[in-house]
Amino acid sequence: MIERLAVIGVGLIGGSLARALRREGVVGEVVGCGRALANLEQAVELGVIDRFTQRPDEAVAGADMVFVAVPLGAMRGVFSAISDRLDPGAVVTDGGSVKGSVVADAMAAFKGVPPSLVPGHPIAGTECSGVEASFAELYENRRVILTPLPETDPDALSRVTAMWETCGAEVTCMSVAHHDEVLAATSHLPHMLAFGLVDSLARMRENDAIFRYAAGGFRDFTRIASSNPVMWRDICLANREALSAMLARFGVEMTDLAESIRRADGEHLLEIFERAKSARDRYVDSAR
Amino acid sequence: MIERLAVIGVGLIGGSLARALRREGVVGEVVGCGRALANLEQAVELGVIDRFTQRPDEAVAGADMVFVAVPLGAMRGVFSAISDRLDPGAVVTDGGSVKGSVVADAMAAFKGVPPSLVPGHPIAGTECSGVEASFAELYENRRVILTPLPETDPDALSRVTAMWETCGAEVTCMSVAHHDEVLAATSHLPHMLAFGLVDSLARMRENDAIFRYAAGGFRDFTRIASSNPVMWRDICLANREALSAMLARFGVEMTDLAESIRRADGEHLLEIFERAKSARDRYVDSAR
Ligand SMILES: NC(=O)c1ccc[n+]([C@@H]2O[C@H](COP(=O)([O-])OP(=O)(O)OC[C@H]3O[C@@H](n4cnc5c(N)ncnc54)[C@H](OP(=O)(O)O)[C@@H]3O)[C@@H](O)[C@H]2O)c1
Ligand SMILES: NC(=O)c1ccc[n+]([C@@H]2O[C@H](COP(=O)([O-])OP(=O)(O)OC[C@H]3O[C@@H](n4cnc5c(N)ncnc54)[C@H](OP(=O)(O)O)[C@@H]3O)[C@@H](O)[C@H]2O)c1
């Protein structure tokens, strides 16, 4: 049971956590925090939070669980604002898409690793933002990755694990560096390809015709290019190293593919496409 | 009304056309043609075709409409087999994803452009193949591009147009070269990115973990990597020039993006992502 949950950043990720915990009846009071009044007022109307403040330090007063779900670029400021205002015994966790930067931000703000900090990342989301996009089912049957540090209090870890399990998620732990590499490959790189593809088509002379003849596959393929640009700028900056490495690896793959097309090497193309198809089919089967 | 329709290649595309025309009651007899007996027998069982032969020249005997829906690499062989066996007055059209190569294949087989040939391409499909994947609704509210040549008989063009409209499709005409460029951008390039991405992840050391933590967006983004590898090898070879140009354009875009990440140029990244998001959102709105 969480007595008082503080949600800093009441958007898709923060709002959905509050909704899920409320639906399960495992939270007493939910205090929201953000900058725009309209979003916070809507959060109260929707029953996602009980009350709000625009000051993170006020939001965490008396909270036994603090969930920070602001864009990565705002993490350090939030941590600095709350670092000496937390209740003893309060657990702090977050939903940021990159973990190395969040840990660095926390260390800078808290002057060291706070044992009550459990860095986390729910592998769930949509391309929509704000509290109105949030829904209680977002985390059902999804994975949440926690990246506890050597200093992390085991009790804090188990409280955060239990919180996510209550939302229907499956919790896995891994190191910060491994998380950032895996996510660079499976999420950050695909987003770069989708943004890059749509942008390069949008910049073509006859881009109206181009988009007019795009088929169904194009809609699915580019869905993630409708994601929040600020959030993605922050992710790129926060996960620069791992993402740059993945982009370079992908660049080598595409150079090889382009070369095979230029020299009409059908055999090599077939090999690439078959390997990709069987990996994708295996992935979908195992995700069932 | 079509008295006798010959479908050479009774797979997703050919089977779906036959189903749609039958449902509308605008076709007398449907003769199927392919290599594997099992697929053809299944096509009869499913009621997609009335009878079959494994010889294209036999299939077109007495047909007033011939639809060629084999992989691009098999087009030339089919055209050669039927070139002097067509009924006078028969119209020939196809569903190949690249039009330049189909026209070249037809010219080689027919020794010139046959006036009865109407090259075409339905902008509809799924990642599945074979007659069992076919369905009558595939072409509803989808576009079909026809690329008539100066030599094309206007009556043949209008018969093919009417046939597709009966299936619920909207028909547009454009030049062969324009078709191949537009499709390189909206379909062939995205497929290369999806195949390339999945292949480069599949080749990573810890690829099990990689795929395990892929989220919902990944499934949609990579759906097209489950497409038929032979069909895509053929498309790459058939549309080499336009696709190479698009790959080069995309390469420049990605180099710029990777450079911006490396030098932490958040402003430029935001500009790219915002332009892409607004183009993608506009595309989805206009597709509604
Ligand atoms: N969307 C996804 O698919 C996804 C998935 C997993 C993890 N994440 C991570 O989850 C976090 C939140 O993403 P989201 O999708 O929920 O975004 P969102 O819907 O835009 O929500 C973010 C919320 O944070 C608030 N906020 C922004 N700056 C703030 C600040 N300085 N102080 C307090 N509140 C602030 C925003 O409200 P105001 O603008 O009114 O302040 C907004 O309501 C990000 O770190 C992201 O990387 C996202
Ligand atoms: N799938 C799409 O999304 C899509 C969309 C638009 C256009 N197209 C185009 O449509 C055409 C067919 O694609 P599809 O998706 O329908 O593929 P499919 O489901 O694999 O069907 C192709 C059919 O052609 C037959 N075939 C192959 N080689 C042949 C030959 N030499 N002689 C006679 N039949 C032969 C195959 O049967 P056997 O192996 O038994 O011969 C198979 O039933 C391709 O040119 C493709 O570029 C596809």
UniProtKB/TrEMBL annotation, chains A, B:
Organism, as annotated: Thiorhodococcus fuscus
PANTHER family listed in its UniProt record: PREPHENATE DEHYDROGENASE, PREPHENATE DEHYDROGENASE [NADP(+)]
Gene3D superfamilies, alphabetized: 6-phosphogluconate dehydrogenase C-terminal like domain, NAD(P)-binding Rossmann-like Domain
Keyword Amino-acid biosynthesis assigned: no
Coiled-coil regions listed: none
Pfam families (UniProt xref): PDH_C, PDH_N
Residue ranges of domain Prephenate/arogenate dehydrogenase in the record: 3-288
SUPFAM superfamilies reported in the protein's UniProt record: 6-phosphogluconate dehydrogenase C-terminal domain-like (SSF48179), NAD(P)-binding Rossmann-fold domains (SSF51735)
Listed PROSITE patterns: PDH_ADH
InterPro entries documented for this protein: 6-PGluconate_DH-like_C_sf (IPR008927), NAD(P)-bd_dom_sf (IPR036291), PDH_C (IPR046825), PDH_N (IPR046826), Preph/Arog_dehydrog (IPR050812), Prephen_DH (IPR003099)
Keywords linked to the UniProt accession: Oxidoreductase
Superkingdom in the source lineage: Bacteria
Keyword Ubl conjugation appears in the UniProt entry: no
Protein name: Prephenate dehydrogenase
